[in-house]
Amino acid sequence: MTDPSADPPTDLDVVDDVGGSEADHTLDADLSRLLRETTSRAGGTAAPRDLAAVKERGLRRRRRTRVRRAAAAAAAAVVVVAVVSVEVHDGGRTTTVSGTTAPVPLLPDAVVLPPDVERQLQALPDTAGRLTRGANLGYLDGPVTRWADVVECSAAQRQAGILIPALRGMDASGFTEVCASNARAEDAGEEFSVTASGARPTLYRFYLPQGVDLGQVTPGSAAAMGVSWTSITPLTEQEAAEGHEREGLPREDATSVARPQGDRAVVSPVLWSRGTEVSWTEQTGAGTFAAGATVAADPVTAVRATFDPHPCDSGFSITPARASGGALTARGALQDWLEGDDAADRPPQTGGQGAPRMGWVVVEEREDQRTFAAGDWRVTAHELSWSSWRVTGQGCASPSDPAPPA
Amino acid sequence: MRRSVEESFDDFAVFAIPRLRKVAHAWSRDRHRAEDAVQGTLERVFAAWPRVRRGEAYGYARTTLVRLLISEERRAWRRHEVTSDDPGQHERLGPDHPTADQRDDGAALLAVLAELPPRQRAVVVLRYLEGLTVTETAQTLRCSEGTVKSQAHDARRVLRERLTSTPDVEGAPR
C-alpha cells in the first residue's frame, strides 16, 4: 500500500499543459499543497467502534449479495453454453483432440467437498474432449493472443471495477499468472459492460505452466498443455433475468453444486479437450457478471481448485460495545447467532453466515469465553457482563486444531 | 481459530480511513457526508474483503469511494444538503477572501471545487490530493486518459479563474 500523503506529487501537469507558463505550474503546485493542507485535519483516526459497525453492516451486505447471486446463478451457465454452441457450430472439418490433462496442484487447505458432492461430480458423463475441432475453428485453433491482449492484472481490474476470478485452491506457485482482455483498442477506457453494439468485454486470468507462453496457447489445446484460466464478462440485465428463469434448465452433461458463497455453480466437462468448466455469477454494485474457470483437471479437482478454500474464512470478529441484549448462556448466544434475523431466507440446514446449524460442540472453555466447533467452523462467544453472552468471533479450524470431541 | 482475515481488514482500515476521509472531505466539504461515504465504502470493501488482493486494497477502496461519491452526487437532494459542525466551511466568501489566510484559502478552494461537475471534481481530487497519474485516474474513473486530460483542463481553468479573480460585490467566487 502506498501512502499518498507521504509522497507529495511533483508532476502536476494535470492537463499535459506543455505550453503552460511557470505561473501555471506554480499555481498547480499551490493548489495541490493547499488541498492537502485543507484536508489534513479531516483524517482523524479509525475508532474501533467505527470498525465494528462497519463490519457488521458489511456482513449484512455480503449476505444480501449471496442471495442475489443465488437468484442469478444460472445466467452464467446459459451464456457459457451459448458461447460453446456458437463456437462448435462455426466449425467445419473436425479432427480428434488428443492429449493428457496435466494435474492441477491443490493447496493443502483447498476446500474439501462433501462426499455426496464428490460422487455427484464423479458421476458426470465422461464427455471431456468428446467434440472434435478442425482447422476452420479459428477460436479453438488460434492462439489466445489472436483475440486477446495481455494486460496488467491489477490495472485491468481497477479499470473494469471487478476482480478477475482466481483459482484460490490451486497451488499457483509453479505457474505464471497472465491476464488478458479481449477489449478492442477503440473501446479502451470504456465501462466494463456490454456495448450498444453487443460487444462483450471479457477479462481472463491464465495460469501457465513453466515453459508455456500465452502465444502458444489455443483454447482447444490449453487444458492438454496444463493451462487453466478464469474469465469474467458482463451480463445485460435481460440475460441475468433470463438466467434466473432458466435456473432449472436440464443439461445432461452438466451438474450444479453449491458454492461456499451460497449460490450455485454449474460444472461440466470441456467438450473439446480434457478439462472441466466451472461457471457461476458474480453480483456487484456495478452489475451482474458471468464468471468461469476452465481447469485442466477432473471435475472434483477443478471444483476444489475453484472454490474458496474456507467459507468460514469470510467470517468476522466484533468488538463488544455493550452488554445489553445478549443471551443468558454461551450456547444461547450461539443459537441467536445461528438463527439471526435472516434465518427465514436461508436453507434449513444452514445457520448464521452459512455455518451448519447442528453438531456444535465446545472445544475451548475459559471463564468468560466459549469456543464452539462444527466441522471446519469455529465460533467464539464472550460473556460481556454477568450472564450476557454474545458471539464475538467466527473463523475456521486451523490445521493444528485438535479434532472436536464426538 | 483463523482470524487473519479480520485482523488484516482492521490493519487496513486503520491505514485507510484517515486517507479516505480526506478524499471524501475534499469532495463534499462536509465531515458528516465524508464520514458516511467512508463508512459506506468500508462496508463494501469488507463485504468483498476475502476477494480483495492485499496490495490493491487501498486502490480498490479509493475507487469504491470515488464512484460512491459520484453516484451520490447524482441524487438531487444531496446537492442542497450540506451539514457541518464547521459553519465557516460553508460560508460564501466575503470580500477579503480567499486570500486572508490559509484557512480561508482552503475554504475557497473547497467551495469552488464543490461547484465543479462530479467528474471534474473527481479528477482534481485524485490528481491533486491523491497524486495519481493520468493513467491511474482514468482507470479509477473508468474513462479514457483523454477524458481525464480534458476534464482536468476544464477544472483547472475554472479553479484558476475563480481563485485568482477579484471577488464581486457579494464576494461569491466566480
Structure characterization notes:
By secondary structure, chain A is an alpha+beta fold. Chain A is 27% helix and 20% strand. Residues 1-16, 70-101, 133-138, 244-249, 314-323 and 341-351 of chain A have low confidence and may be disordered. By secondary structure, chain B is mostly helical. Chain B is globular and about 45 Å long. The chains are: A alpha+beta (406), B mainly alpha (174). At the A-B interface, helix 1, helix 2, helix 7 and strand 12 of A face helix 1, helix 2, helix 3, helix 5 and helix 6 of B.
- Taking all Cα atoms into account, the compactness measure Rg of chain A is 25 Å
Mean pLDDT of chain A: 70
Principal-axis shape of chain A: globular
Rg from alpha-carbon coordinates of chain B: 17 Å
Uncertain regions spanning at least 5 consecutive residues of chain B: 75-100, 166-174
| Multimeric status of the protein | heterodimer
Main β sheet profile of chain A: 8 strands, antiparallel
Q: What's the end-to-end separation of chain A, in Å?
A: 45 Å
Structural category of chain B is: mainly alpha
How many helical stretches of chain A? 10
List the secondary-structure elements of chain A in sequence, H or E: HHHHHHEHEEEHEEEEHHEEEE
Helix/strand structural class of chain A: alpha+beta
Main attributes of the structure:
heterodimer, A: 406 residues, alpha+beta, eight-stranded antiparallel β-sheet, four-stranded antiparallel β-sheet, 10 helices, 20% strand, globular, disordered N terminus, B: 174 residues, mainly alpha, 8 helices, 67% helix, disordered C terminus
Summarize the structure in short.
Chain A has 406 residues and is an alpha+beta fold. Chain A is 27% helix and 20% strand. Chain B has eight helices and no strands.
